[in-house]
């Protein structure tokens, strides 16, 4: 898949991701998703502006309404801008209103069978659970947690009701790598990939992806998707090597 894919695919995958990482409060505004997620990573609470707006006047009015929604909750509005999926002119309008561009991201997808074809035999010792265990969460938080207080992120996982799998790689009885997959309408989203430093470069992350792909295939997901920072070269290499091609780039606009 390439950056030339239809914008509806990118929007659909990001809406699946929003369901897999459920914000505490979600409201709709003309197709836009307004998400508020206190205590969670900030991107869980970003706006998904996937509905159209008729002209610059309506677009500006809608942004003002979004800003009011977040101000009423003591928060700042942050927008997730996907090429060709967001309304035309929104990115420029936000820049004019003082929103800075933040984070260059890559939305990637693969056929589940292709991921399995590229999985190596002799996978590391793995454990798969339906719900997050403390060991899974502690490993993820140690590597990727952005907030010293983990309670908000733990509550986010408790809110996630969709069919999920939590994979752990074990070394010496200790969890050293983790990942999560969520099935939604024929797709499995991959989240929470994290590997402790001492286990990197040993195939742990590939083992997690392979286990999640087997689980996804068994649960009717013919395709998989994930999101990764474009400047995370090691992760991009891993995902490209496992067959994940780019669907679209995206970035955020954050109020200054």
TrEMBL record:
The keyword Transferase applies. The keyword Transferase applies. GO terms for molecular function: acyltransferase activity, transferring groups other than amino-acyl groups. Keywords: Transferase. SUPFAM superfamilies: Acyl-CoA N-acyltransferases (Nat). Gene3D superfamilies: 3.40.630.30. It comes from the Bacteria. Coiled coil: none annotated. Residues 123-256 form the N-acetyltransferase domain. Pfam families: Rv0428c_C (PF24553). InterPro entries: Acyl_CoA_acyltransferase, GNAT_dom, Rv0428c-like_C. This is GNAT superfamily N-acetyltransferase. It comes from Saccharomonospora amisosensis.
């Amino acid at each position: 898949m390439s950056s030339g894919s239809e914008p509806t695919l990118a929007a659909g995958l990001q809406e699946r991701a929003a369901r897999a990482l459920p914000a505490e409060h979600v409201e709709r505004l003309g197709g836009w998703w307004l998400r508020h997620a206190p205590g969670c990573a900030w991107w869980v609470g970003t706006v998904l502006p996937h509905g159209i707006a008729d002209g610059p006047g309506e677009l500006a009015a809608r942004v003002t309404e979004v800003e009011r929604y977040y101000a009423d909750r003591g928060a700042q509005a942050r927008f997730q801008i996907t090429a060709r999926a967001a309304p035309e002119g929104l990115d420029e309008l936000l820049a004019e209103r003082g929103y800075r561009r933040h984070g260059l991201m890559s939305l990637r997808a693969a056929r589940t069978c292709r991921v399995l074809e590229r999985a190596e035999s002799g996978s590391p010792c793995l454990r798969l659970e339906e719900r997050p265990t403390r060991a899974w969460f502690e490993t993820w938080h140690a590597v990727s947690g952005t907030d010293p207080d983990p309670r908000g992120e733990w509550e986010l996982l408790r809110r996630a009701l969709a069919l999920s799998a939590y994979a752990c790689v074990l070394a010496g009885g200790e969890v050293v790598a983790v990942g999560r997959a969520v099935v939604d309408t024929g797709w499995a989203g991959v989240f929470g990939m994290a590997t402790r430093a001492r286990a990197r470069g040993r195939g742990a992350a590939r083992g997690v992806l392979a286990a999640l792909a087997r689980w996804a295939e068994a649960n009717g997901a013919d395709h998989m998707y994930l999101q990764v920072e474009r400047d995370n070269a090691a992760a991009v290499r891993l995902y490209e090597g496992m067959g994940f091609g780019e669907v679209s780039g995206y970035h955020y606009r954050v109020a200054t």
